Amino acid sequence: MNERDDLYQTREAHSADFRFDDAVARVFPDMIKRSVPGYAETVAMSGIIAGRYARDNTRLYDLGCSLGAVTLAMRHGVRARGCQVIGVDNSASMLERAAHYIALDDHSLAGDPVAVELLQADICSLTLDNASVTALNYVLQFIVLDQRLELLTRIAEATIPGGALILSEKISFEVAEQPLQDALHWDFKRANGYSEMEIARKRTAIEDYLIPEREEVHRQRLLAAGFSQVIRWYQCFNFVSFLAIR
Ligand SMILES: C[S@@+](CC[C@H](N)C(=O)[O-])C[C@H]1O[C@@H](n2cnc3c(N)ncnc32)[C@H](O)[C@@H]1O
Ligand SMILES: O=C(O)C(=O)C[C@]1(C(=O)O)C=C[C@@H](O)C=C1
């Protein structure tokens, strides 16, 4: 199942034509590991954070769950009782594969594991409720700009007092810092075996589709959405993760 990402060795790229389709879902674990600096740590620490913030008889949401990496990290991190982890994605190709990974995990766990449910839905029109922890791991960056505050506000309103949002994103920087951050990111991709052509084609494909914003924009919008505290708990080059508390 873990195929190597060679999509842009053969695929031509056009602006904003990247989609989470079957071809991407097939190579996704390899693609995200080789493309996002700090991905493995972000997933693993989502489990630790879920352990601290999950409360009895609440929900944990993994919005834009792809193959369910964070869904499973949260399932394994939860110590509270009566919790349910809900993984949501609008890509059928992703969810089909996520279901396979959840089933493998079900079989490996003894006793009464934390319940996991997968849902195919658009997170921009999903009703959320009774959340103690929500993860938005590299997903907000794909939501059109004018829907981002509304989505975060719905998450904040659905979050119990003291509950948490884990928000991981590719970010942008002020003009003086941006070239260095880009260069380091592309060095990371080169070191992971992507060619100049693959890096350039992926860049074209996600341009105008993955829209990064500055740290300050994220912080202020999270506060405007209804969270009371925001910290940046992790950064690796141009990828960061925030923890926002309701
Ligand atoms: C970069 S991946 C997320 C990675 C995943 N959270 C992880 O940590 O492994 C982005 C995911 O968001 C999903 N997505 C994008 N827009 C969405 C929307 N409006 N509703 C639901 N899912 C969405 C995509 O289908 C894709 O699977
Ligand atoms: O910014 C890039 O160059 C990326 O490849 C990033 C990114 C992401 O952050 O989601 C884009 C699409 C894939 O899902 C994997 C990585």
Q: What does the main sheet amount to?
A: 8 strands, mixed
Which geometry do the CA atoms define?
globular
Model regions low in confidence, pLDDT < 50 over at least 5 residues: none
Order of helices and strands: HHHEHEHEEHEHHEHEE
Query: What would you call the structural class?
Result: alpha/beta
Radius of gyration equals: 18 Å
Strand content: 15-25%
In the CATH hierarchy, what is the architecture at level 2? 3-Layer(aba) Sandwich
Number of helices: 9
N-to-C CA distance = 38 Å
Highest CATH level, the class: Alpha Beta
Q: How are the SSEs ordered, and which strands pair?
A:
Blueprint: H1 7-10, H2 22-35, H3 39-53, E1 59-63, H4 69-77, E2 84-89, H5 92-108, E3 115-120, E4 131-137, H6 145-158, E5 159-172, H7 178-191, H8 196-206, E6 213-214, H9 215-225, E7 229-236, E8 239-245
Parallel strand pairs: 1-2, 1-4, 2-3, 4-5, 5-6
Antiparallel strand pairs: 5-8, 7-8
Helix pairs in contact: 3-4, 6-9
The protein binds S-adenosylmethionine and prephenic acid.
Residues 31-32, 35-36, 138, 170, 202, 206, 210 line the site of prephenic acid.
Catalytic activity: prephenate + S-adenosyl-L-methionine = carboxy-S-adenosyl-L-methionine + 3-phenylpyruvate + H2O
Protein name: Carboxy-S-adenosyl-L-methionine synthase
Keywords: S-adenosyl-L-methionine, Transferase
